[in-house]
Amino acid sequence: xxxxxxxxxxxxxxxxxxxxxxxxxxxxxxxxxxxxxxxxxxxxxxxxxxxxxxxxxxxxxxxxxxxxxxxxxxxxxxxxxxxxxxxxxxxxxxxxxxxxxxxxxxxxxxxxxxxxxxxxxxxxxxxxxxxxxxxxxxxxxxxxxxxxxxxxxxxxxxxxxxxxxxxxxxxxxxxxxxxxxxxxxxxxxxxxxxxxxxxxxxxxxxxxxxxxxxxxxxxxxxxxxxxxxxxxxxxxxxxxxxxxxxxxx
Amino acid sequence: xxxxxxxxxxxxxxxxxxxxxxxxxxxxxxxxxxxxxxxxxxxxxxxxxxxxxxxxxxxxxxxxxxxxxxxxxxxxxxxxxxxxxxxxxxxxxxxxxxxxxxxxxxxxxxxxxxxxxxxxxxxxxxxxxxxxxxxxxxxxxxxxxxxxxxxxxxxxxxxxxxxxxxxxxxxxxxxxxxxxxxxxxxxxxxxxxxxxxxxxxxxxxxxxxxxxxxxxxxxxxxxxxxxxxxxxxxxxxxxxxxxxxxxxx
Amino acid sequence: xxxxxxxxxxxxxxxxxxxxxxxxxxxxxxxxxxxxxxxxxxxxxxxxxxxxxxxxxxxxxxxxxxxxxxxxxxxxxxxxxxxxxxxxxxxxxxxxxxxxxxxxxxxxxxxxxxxxxxxxxxxxxxxxxxxxxxxxxxxxxxxxxxxxxxxxxxxxxxxxxxxxxxxxxxxxxxxxxxxxxxxxxxxxxxxxxxxxxxxxxxxxxxxxxxxxxxxxxxxxxxxxxxxxxxxxxxxxxxxxxxxxxxxxx
Amino acid sequence: xxxxxxxxxxxxxxxxxxxxxxxxxxxxxxxxxxxxxxxxxxxxxxxxxxxxxxxxxxxxxxxxxxxxxxxxxxxxxxxxxxxxxxxxxxxxxxxxxxxxxxxxxxxxxxxxxxxxxxxxxxxxxxxxxxxxxxxxxxxxxxxxxxxxxxxxxxxxxxxxxxxxxxxxxxxxxxxxxxxxxxxxxxxxxxxxxxxxxxxxxxxxxxxxxxxxxxxxxxxxxxxxxxxxxxxxxxxxxxxxxxxxxxxxx
Amino acid sequence: xxxxxxxxxxxxxxxxxxxxxxxxxxxxxxxxxxxxxxxxxxxxxxxxxxxxxxxxxxxxxxxxxxxxxxxxxxxxxxxxxxxxxxxxxxxxxxxxxxxxxxxxxxxxxxxxxxxxxxxxxxxxxxxxxxxxxxxxxxxxxxxxxxxxxxxxxxxxxxxxxxxxxxxxxxxxxxxxxxxxxxxxxxxxxxxxxxxxxxxxxxxxxxxxxxxxxxxxxxxxxxxxxxxxxxxxxxxxxxxxxxxxxxxxx
Amino acid sequence: xxxxxxxxxxxxxxxxxxxxxxxxxxxxxxxxxxxxxxxxxxxxxxxxxxxxxxxxxxxxxxxxxxxxxxxxxxxxxxxxxxxxxxxxxxxxxxxxxxxxxxxxxxxxxxxxxxxxxxxxxxxxxxxxxxxxxxxxxxxxxxxxxxxxxxxxxxxxxxxxxxxxxxxxxxxxxxxxxxxxxxxxxxxxxxxxxxxxxxxxxxxxxxxxxxxxxxxxxxxxxxxxxxxxxxxxxxxxxxxxxxxxxxxxx
Amino acid sequence: xxxxxxxxxxxxxxxxxxxxxxxxxxxxxxxxxxxxxxxxxxxxxxxxxxxxxxxxxxxxxxxxxxxxxxxxxxxxxxxxxxxxxxxxxxxxxxxxxxxxxxxxxxxxxxxxxxxxxxxxxxxxxxxxxxxxxxxxxxxxxxxxxxxxxxxxxxxxxxxxxxxxxxxxxxxxxxxxxxxxxxxxxxxxxxxxxxxxxxxxxxxxxxxxxxxxxxxxxxxxxxxxxxxxxxxxxxxxxxxxxxxxxxxxx
Amino acid sequence: xxxxxxxxxxxxxxxxxxxxxxxxxxxxxxxxxxxxxxxxxxxxxxxxxxxxxxxxxxxxxxxxxxxxxxxxxxxxxxxxxxxxxxxxxxxxxxxxxxxxxxxxxxxxxxxxxxxxxxxxxxxxxxxxxxxxxxxxxxxxxxxxxxxxxxxxxxxxxxxxxxxxxxxxxxxxxxxxxxxxxxxxxxxxxxxxxxxxxxxxxxxxxxxxxxxxxxxxxxxxxxxxxxxxxxxxxxxxxxxxxxxxxxxxx
Lengths: 249, 249, 249, 249, 249, 249, 249, 249
Hints:
Eight copies of one chain form a homooctamer.
Chain A lengths: L1 H13 L5 H10 L8 H4 L2 H4 L4 E4 L5 H13 L4 E4 L3 H10 L4 E3 L4 E4 L11 E6 L5 H13 L3 E5 L7 H5 L2 H6 L2 E6 L4 H9 L4 E5 L11 H8 L6 E3 L5 H13 L1
């Protein structure tokens, strides 16, 4: 499409139909999309396998369903985060095969089953039962990006032996996502035990001076264990997405 | 002394020297110190063994030395916190036997060696080398309050096996003081491992978003391990003092 | 239980049923629970008398009832905090003898009456009527941990003589829990009057610049009275739990 | 002066020297100072007794001395706050009778001794030795505004009986200024004991989570004792000034 | 009442019915209320004219009504702040003459009309229409404390000439209460115009970065106009109360 | 009107009906409105074209309708921001021609179509779909102030080529308003691309550590691109108003 | 330069020297600088009159001098902000005609005197003497951008009549920059008095709870006067720059 | 080593030298290091190639040199961050071949040149000249971990075309580290342009409301571009370390 537009100009220039001055002006006026950003956009190709993502918060169920249908019509996989049961009801009407993960509040639809590496595993660890929704969001995101995912939920550091029982799995992981609220110390403990990239997700779970996740966020940013990086509070999607990029790095 | 004053009044009343109205007025005018607060102050007796404490920050070396001398003259043990080497030079002139703990920045003088319980131990754990000054302040404070103190320094959670090697000592402790900066997660880990009162001291050690100890403070307040209580940032003295009160509880 | 598993291995090794190499591998593969953490976990024995605790917030009534039943079936006492009347209705169906403290929002069930020390008392002081729910939570927690508890409610410092009338009770206490919102100054006042460990609980009670308990929290952390330690905002359970650990210290 | 200008206009108008249009225009163009603000400025008269104030921070000693000299030349009393010894040296050169309060860092010069009410007393209470500089600043300010001032220093609430010994003085006060750092609870305690306006001055004295006076500021704003008003952190001058206005109210 | 108890003791001592030792012990055991705090409590007398205050927030309508009735039965005036219409309905049942100020959300009942000074006026100025409820709370409080009150509402600084039109009233005031949200600059402007004590009440009115009153609070604390003191956000009652104390200073 | 009052005085003075002293007093007592502030208020003339603005939040629908009617009766254009559908229903009853912008939550009524400059354009750019309501508020405000407005919505920097396609429009703009939540980086990017005044509006759109717009606000204040100024969070009206003033500068 | 490169390609294509495929690939590979951003960069032309700016903080004097020399060699005017006297000494060596504004800490060099509009004035108002350095920075910046600048310093709102005396100048201004620390209320007052764009610069001047300019920043963002926009704390340069852009809008 | 100890026990048990009870007790008493943590520690092997790291801040030059020597003696590469020139002088005495990166403040010593992948590149982008020290710290860290590193410094978004010129390099990267202060928007822009993991490092560079890096930190956490993870303010080392782990993931 882009090429055709340029080609057209070039040919008309060659035939003398347009002047040097004109073609230069026109080349410069081509929108960035059509010309300049070819360079930028060709990374889109890499993204091919990736689902298109809808952030449902602040959208009506009808809007969510409409965008979902369009994505699937474009032969893309669908990932809709922060979806309510009501959003799902509406999506199901237009994409009967859509699946709803109630805990992680995610709607997904996979056009055709992706082949997943049997070697590169993303392990997702969560500290408390209240952190599970965010951990699930991360898990479904990573899974929809074509990765193998394993989950270890409810292994907070207040009973550290439970965590230590999972050392084998943690050592097998390529990337570990740690989801924790309150003081968020689980990320430090895991970061100190393994030699893998750890993505820490602070959650807004907590009371009093947890300040809706700030305590966990600060705890994770200040971790004494090197190699930990942090995403925004409750941003399970972001962690799953970043972990997927890492496996492709 | 108090009694004598009241007695005097009562006798003069009995002999008719003063009237009902007069004695009632006089009783009411007795200062709180002399009358009403006997009740409050008799807990002072309990404090007997405790040293008198000077907080040196914001005082001149001469002032520190003068107050120190007065304390010792009153037959009290001396504990001067946040003391500079210069403070110590001045104190040594008037109390030659005074001892300076350079790391913990504490000057002490014990009139006569206190007998320390061989059973009740206060264990002080610190996370990093930079937390040691505060840990030392806590240790010296607890020691001067008549307690047996054991120290485990530099056992941060980034290498948790080092900590686990000290489980026996932690289990023998009556109270554990945990001194940690950065994310302060050590308190949670220890609180999850033992069934003893844990006093957490956040330190101002850290960089960037540690905000001079706020990250550690929030981490400790929001600990998922029950039984942890917290003192102010860098307040090693407060932790040592509170631990001593606990052993007398 | 643990011993049996190891014993079994050892005997099979002794009889030559398994090889040296095998037994070493197996010993190393024993989960931390079964082997390594014996050391850690044997503190569980101490906890024996302690109830199992459920934090009800974020759980459905059915979930709360189910966990409660399981706890009681395991011959443990029950303590469910932040419980709604609705939670209680459901619990009562499966544990008819369960008791609900409406003010403190706590459900309890004691399998058999614990014997309480007549000497070691935990005194719980609260500043205003709005602080009472948190104070009750602390009181029920401490009681369920097997302690004698006395309560002094509504003795804020704006009428300090009311507080002073309770000096005797405060002096009889082994530990004092002070529950206060607004500026939280009650903790400092009590900390200055007695020689006992004081656990301060800031509450989210207040208006304007109280910032849901931050003013009280900062006030308590910065108390000029030594020996005060602090728990998280509104964390009555944590204070009751810590006080219980102190009495066992 | 103002009147003369208007008078002049009016007379020239009456004589026909200037037209209606002209005088109206001229009246409107009179600067606010000369016309409109007579109404506003005549409160200056009330201020007569008040000294002129210099805030020395950020001024050179020469500047301070120069302004000081000008104030005295205008027959005003002088009050220079946050003054360094160096500032004073320079001022003394041009106003030999100037007095320096080293603790409160205030330079003063009273042209002639003011008569002070023997009945209306401003009592200034401070919590700790480190609060004294701010308390002194308040005291000197109030004194220079023509008030009788009494000081009660170092009566923190960690030993509340010391404070109670001063009940008589507090009850005699017309206004009480309470200067306190750390948790600032002294303001609440005094506010609960007396029926007088209490002006609370939080100081930046404290450690760790006192955040340079924020803890004290919040504590005072959230005081459970009614009738307390607050000035900025370390603003002893503001408190002394406000107390003086109150005595004139 | 107190006297009688002491008298009784003294007489029994004089008659020899009780011994010296006994009477001294008994005197010391008298509650602070009955003995020691006579000194403290006799300021109650001054408060005589003051109404008893109920803070309705967090109380049921039945509780509010019950406490209100008791206050009136004790021959005290009633002031109930933060009262809902529902609270009022219930109070009216037991105190038919009670009055409800719907805007200020205050219930009042005056046993007998107080005589108000015709000279000492408290002027209450508010910046915007949304600040009026807090201004009304301050006004009713000051009125019920026996003061003459004048109100100037809706004179924000965005149209400063409206404010300047009220200079006369401001100059007649003994105390001015300024109620303002958003940036709270009205307090500074008024503080710069008059020589009277100004009590500033920040309100939680505002959007975005007003942070529920913090912007106004900081603005008022940092006012460049001397003589301003500040109460907590939305604390109209506190301002009215403090202004009343000032008029009695 | 003002002139007449002064004129009257002058004439009565000229005729001798009133004395010098009287006229001077009377001149000084003229309200600021009538005399002194002519100077201030004559800028009102400039404002002529501007609509009168109602901020609906915190007002009842009846109040909004009543004020709206009054504005229109005074022959002014109407702009009511933060209006609910309910507000609009009520306004329509009294101003049938009033228009409601549902997305921007603004009610407008233009008495007669204003002529808009075809050269000076205000371009409004928004980053995400959730920022559109605030962008619309800015757009309608600027439009009602008599400006030509163009809108470019949904061009966040996560796909910067979309933005670059609008370079022509941005270069044609006289002022650009950038509306963005989350990290607010769009303002910096646009500020770096063009040489026009950029007004940045942070929105409260975001999650976790966006803190209801603080992240965007700080991002915009700290922009590395010079020439950006910032209004309050979600303050679309303020941005539209400021942009209008700029076009008249 | 750019044109030549494209021209070359086109001509070689026309002559058949390069193929369609080749020229398209080459066109796409042209760096953004050479092709795509012609569109973006041609706004540089507008900037012609503008000086090049150096932010001196964090640069050595030698570095500052070197960059300065290069700027002047390129026939640009020079504006170096946050310059120390030492920076100036070094610059003077290489640009003898460079001028240093000591108060505003700015070094400037104007190649040839710019012609300044006699109609469009930028008025810069500052509240206190300590705000003057930032006000000077804004003034010099605006002046070097080719504008006429007038300054009104030291007209804080604590004596509002001084400000009102400058109404004429404010009304003559095209843009007003208000520089104020402490509570920053001056911006609101001026914003309420005039109908011109107001750029508010909060300064870090203040004490206690001014928090290095946060109080002023919040005050300005929350101003009740519409039309005010805000730049970063102490960012006089940014305000001067934005004001210049406005005059060109 | 571990095996031998266990083996020994087992054999003595088999021969009957020790009893069942004894061997079980002894097995349980093996330190975690010797037994349980074999599992944990064997990840050390992976770390082999990694240098040992010293954080120099808070250590004396002599301490730094001593630890450095020990590391090199253990045949490890050396990486000492936050090193002063003075630290380096001392290290050079004991490790003559040590190299000092003055800008990044890092001392390194590589025992033998590591072979670096020619395919996997870590690209480090920094926004402004003041961010370079942190960017260098990240670069040296990543290099010492055995990676190929490319640097693009000074490509802030205020001139976005400079950045776009580096699209090729960014697209070739396996991981991109973005180092930026002020509003930190560069991370968002780059995250929107490429499909690689982006590690964002906020720096404390900035003025006014940048709050020593908080503005940049919040900006990065709230980035609208997915796939960005964040490390602590100024933590170049952490970013370099995390990037290295990613390349090994």
